[in-house]
Amino acid sequence: MPAKKNNYRFEEILDKHQLKKTDARLRVLSMLASKNFATSQPDLEEVMVDVDRGTLYRILNAFEEKGIIHKVFDLNGTANYALCNSDCEENHHHDEHLHFNCVQCNNVYCLNDLDLPDLNLPEGFKSLNFSLSVTGICPKCGKKSK
């Protein structure tokens, strides 16, 4: 999903998923859209000091259930959140893409534009979701180390 910083687009997303348009929800969407990497709840808490932890947790949980965001874990096991592709639906995500974990800055990047191989499971197995991640050094950290 392209990062749109205007509230009109975010309000459309909330309308589409039948969620009330609150300032906190709009701000969470804006924060997630403003970054090119996934963001953890603790990182959101640092910026959104006027929103309590429970409210932020409920917002992230509702967004994930509705298919607005998806969760990916960093190298420390911390959940990070990123906006979903526009074709995600309630309780059914279509975010089968590569996640890149940088070992230096610990950021998690969604690499949506890479072609992934088809997943051919043995007979009787049914895939509901899968996660593929790579660890390494991101371009920003790579430039710092030169």
From TrEMBL:
Keywords assigned by UniProt, alphabetized: DNA-binding, Iron, Metal-binding, Repressor, Transcription, Transcription regulation, Zinc
Tree of life domain: Bacteria
Cofactor(s) the protein requires to work: Zn(2+); Mn(2+); Fe(2+)
Residues that bind Zn(2+): C102, C105, C138, C141
InterPro entries: FUR, Fur_C, WH-like_DNA-bd_sf, WH_DNA-bd_sf
Binding site for Fe cation: H93, D95
Cofactor remark: Binds 1 zinc ion per subunit.
UniProt GO BP: negative regulation of DNA-templated transcription; regulation of secondary metabolite biosynthetic process
Pfam family, one: FUR
MF GO annotations: DNA-binding transcription factor activity; transcription cis-regulatory region binding; zinc ion binding
PANTHER family: HYDROGEN PEROXIDE SENSITIVE REPRESSOR, ZINC UPTAKE REGULATION PROTEIN
Family designation: Belongs to the Fur family.
Official protein name in the record: Fur family ferric uptake transcriptional regulator
Organism: Mucilaginibacter frigoritolerans
Lineage: Bacteria, Pseudomonadati, Bacteroidota, Sphingobacteriia, Sphingobacteriales
